[in-house]
Amino acid sequence: ARAFMEGRLTEEDLDGFRQEKSREGHALSSYPHPRLMPGFWEFPTVSMGIGPMNAIYQAQSNRYLHNRGIKDTSDQQVWAFLGDGEMDEPESRGLLQLAANENLDNLNFVINCNLQRLDGPVRGNGKIMQELEAFFRGAGWNVIKVVWGREWDTLLENDTDGALVKLMNETADGDYQTYKAESGGFVREHFFGRTPQTKDMVADLTDEQIWGLKRGGHDYRKVYAAYKAATEFKGKPTVILAKTVKGYGLGPHFEGRNATHQMKKLTMEDLKAFRDHLRIPISDDQLDADLYRPPYYHPGMDAPEIQYLMERRNALGGFVPERRRTHTPVTLPDAKSYEVAKRGSGKQQAATTMAFVRLLKDLMRDKNFGHRLVPVVPDESRTFGMDAFFPTAKIYNPKGQNYLSVDRDLVLAYKESPAGQLIHPGINEAGAVAAFTAAGTSYATHGEPLVPIYVFYSMFGFQRTGDSFWAAADQMTRGFIIGATAGRTTLTGEGLQHADGHSPVLASTNPAVRTYDPAYGYEIGHIIRHGLETMYGDTEDPNVMFYLTVYNEPITQPAEPENLDTEGLLKGIYHLAPAPDGSPDRPTAQILASGVSVPWALEAARILNQDWGVAADVWSVTSWNELRRDGLEADDHA
Q1: Could you say which DSSP state residue 176 is in?
Q2: Where are the domains of the chain?
Q3: What is the pTM of this model?
Q4: 430-458 tens-digit pLDDT
């Protein structure tokens, strides 16, 4: 609606609301979705609980950019608009401590306390605002409450014996919901009439005046005062708890009703009441002409209100929301950075996890690009051999390291720094994906590309945080997802839930994810290089994430073979080992394998060739998903 007032959307666009096919070119998505409106929306957080998490890590990411000297974000604020029912989600409250621990005073939550879920009251027998106040204060946040509109001010000033405040505090949320679904006379009798003092306080008010006693979240002066106080507060994140009415302004059939979400149409009576409530200059005749196509109202671009609106937007740096797709140019690593992946492991054995970590270490050393890589590891760096990064890249902590590290004398000592490059969210996969999303969208939100590398135990991936990965895909995140210590055999001793062979399958269901299951280090090198060129080269669809499965099964990593079919490798399959030449009538076989199965397939081919007289070729399948995506099945290649 505001974008229409600003001239950014036309009437034809508004007619396309929720009609994405029939109004193609003028369609408006019903929920914020950057892939459907790539120049408009920035943050898709439809799934409850993801919004609060992502907002916290977005605020952290802003500080991360600032502390590492990549961009000055000192004046930027992050706002998350949430619901009181949404705070029931564990994710909504589960990461509040991070914001408090890092003093993220650039972060503001606004929780719309309308006391109502889809089905009924949020805390029918309780007080959700008091509950949330206690919870956020306990978590170290600054709390601002916007409870009552200015119409209550005189009554509260006259409440010399505290009878009104006592009555307010004793009234359950379920009753407050009921009052807004009834009338002024009902409120007089069932609320004020409960004590002689409060009954006398409203004796001179009409039922209409009693009905007009607004809640604070609908008083723009008090909302403004709360927002101003939030932006000026320093040292802690802020939450604004604003008391409101579900369906406010839509008339008595909607306001405060349990069925509000199920009601699809306004009656003409409701529509006219809504018009009167907002003082919109549209006549009865205009509305009566067609209930289903009421006119849009715009005062004109020359109107003083619109001129003021445009002046403020210009002064504040542009429109909101607006997704900006231009960013600082990126110089990608040259071929030399990938040489370590091509060399193999010589006489030593190394798992593909280690091959990947060695490659990442060289990429982070690249003078032009290395500072844009953001490793995100949830308390498993030592497991993956990434503790080698601690002394040099360091772990990001805005407060530095104010203690004496127990391993300070070791070469790979644990080191934290305000300018640290590694994001360490702790035992916290949900937070890690939120950090991954914030870094992977920095090219759009800040115009400064960052490439997150999220490394984790593969079984804690899409099956545990898949919803957050879908939100990341919707937000057009770019980055690498590394499912490490994968496989059905490696960790079986820790229980069946660690015998993971399904993560690549789950990852492959997301259309924004390019899924690979490499066998060798040199394959990883080509996939990573291809991923970076896809995200920040001149490609048609750069808004993708690359999922790589890596293993901790030690094998001899071969050097990259001559005349490697790189195109086949990236498309999903390439001819790894041809069978020995044999007689024309000799039986032949094609062996297809991926990941850690490839070395076993080579051994199987050797046995077939020597002991069975079968000429067996071996094909390395780097990505079943890429084969399907290109419309090719493995046997087509073979």
Answers
A1: H
A2: 42-149+214-250, 272-301, 335-560, 569-637
A3: 0.94
A4: 999 999 999 999 999 999 999 999 999 98
